[in-house]
Amino acid sequence: MDDRVASRLDGKDHTLWGPAAEEEASQRLGWMDLFEDSRELVPQIEGLRAELAAEGISRVVLAGMGGSSLAPEVIAATVGCPLTVLDSTDPEMVGNVLAAGVADTVLVVSSKSGSTVETDSQRRVFEQAFNDAGLDAASRIVVVTDPGSPLEQSAREAGYRRVFTADPTVGGRYSALTAFGLVPTGLAGVDIAALLDDAEETREVLATDDPGNPGLQLGAAMAGTDPLRNKLVFSDEDSGLVGFGGWAEQLIAESTGKDGTGVLPVVVDAGDPETLSAADDLLQIRLVADPEDREAPDANDASDADSVPPLRSEHAVEVFGSLGAQLLLWEFATAVAGRILGINPFDQPDVEAAKTAARGLLDATPKSKRPDTVIGTVEVTGPDDVVNGPAGSPDDLGQVLAAVAQLVPAHGYLAVQAYLDRVGYPELEVLRAALATLSGRPVTFGWGPRFLHSTGQYHKGGTPEGVFLQVTADSDLDLDIPGRPFTFGQLLAAQAAGDASVLREHGRPVVRLHLTERTDGIGQLLRAAHGTQGSDGA
């Protein structure tokens, strides 16, 4: 405790991460003392919610990416308040959200920079939908952004209903308890004052230079092992925090995955292959209920006795607490982990590369590339080990998946990246556990393009041991983006291709499975994952 990390972090000491990080850190520590500003928002948000309700507006749609969408989704889902999170450029997902109707809808447009292409595109198509329905679009749009951003200026000029500006010294992935987390969830009906109460109580504990400080303990568990256990296997053991691992995934991966190091969250279900592994590079993170709220297990009930695999204590950490407490705890612990790793936890130097590549593809004349092989309605592109293995071209997708699994190095990981409608096709996530079984290694699953604002930083800047499986698809539906020379489908395709090109430039193996027909292709993939594909490759 001699270096007083806890009290210095609570005091916003920007020198904690070394000289190279000082400039960035000096502008990114507002999340440690945001409570006064956040509490001032509570009556404003509650007042706006009452106004909207009086007008019959009950559906809240959030257009945002990364830190602007992940925390609100967890907060609303945990509390049980309806919030539609639109964090995709997939034309089917956008189209389905629009198809639900806009008569009772308010759109929250959330972007720190004010220039996020996905969020701007979503705003444009909703604004047109409001106008087409004969509604005053400006009265149905609420904006959350940083002061001085292009979005703030354009929103005020357009006369949008409300413009909330957040503290610019809080980075996106640390913004859960700022306007970015509070406005959409408060409008959806969450008791945001109670959320802040829980977090503020936790801050008092985190500020103490004491060996029992949970933030220091968790940060040390994340980044202080020797050798480094750089994959954090997140499993939920009835914590009551819905989807919390997805929020923590962005916070940790984007904060630590740089300079060739970092820790990678691997979000799994209880009982998945990774939770049974004692590999020396895995740390089990179990999100559990408060011990005081748990029922004592029945020693005679085998299902209770076997519910948590018996792992050595150095392999596992149990974490519990209220949602507000957990949000601040993990932010604090991640900053501590960054200090231990010797990196700047507040920048994201490799995120822009994929965005630049996507913009370049949108501006260029499209070039078609022949797939290496075609199986049913799935086009396969990738390294020779996958498309031309020992037996020549694969006959079915099961062989492709097995070959992809074999590419993962001894201490590596596999990342599945699905550029499809995550609400429409949640069953695709079975690929994760199937590939973890095949490879014997941890597997992450990300929906594109939202993971580009999350684990995308780790993929390029973290430990260079990843293998990447892209799943893309044609769609019968496409949507124009008003005022833009490209469609949602073209934007999504450019984002996938741009990220793949940057990964390859970094020497990362990339395999692409492109579904020329969504329904049939997804069926093929699912049957391959379950090991029941037919002789026709389906």
UniProtKB/TrEMBL annotation:
SUPFAM superfamilies in UniProt: SIS domain
Annotated catalysed reactions: alpha-D-glucose 6-phosphate = beta-D-fructose 6-phosphate
Enzyme Commission no: 5.3.1.9
UniProtKB keywords: Gluconeogenesis, Glycolysis, Isomerase
Family listed: Belongs to the GPI family.
UniProt region (Disordered), positions on chain: 291-310
Gene Ontology MF terms in the entry: isomerase activity
InterPro entries for the chain: G6P_Isomerase, SIS_dom_sf
Low complexity compositional bias, start-end: 299-310
Biochemical pathway: Carbohydrate degradation; glycolysis; D-glyceraldehyde 3-phosphate and glycerone phosphate from D-glucose: step 2/4
Entry protein name: Glucose-6-phosphate isomerase
Transmembrane segments: none
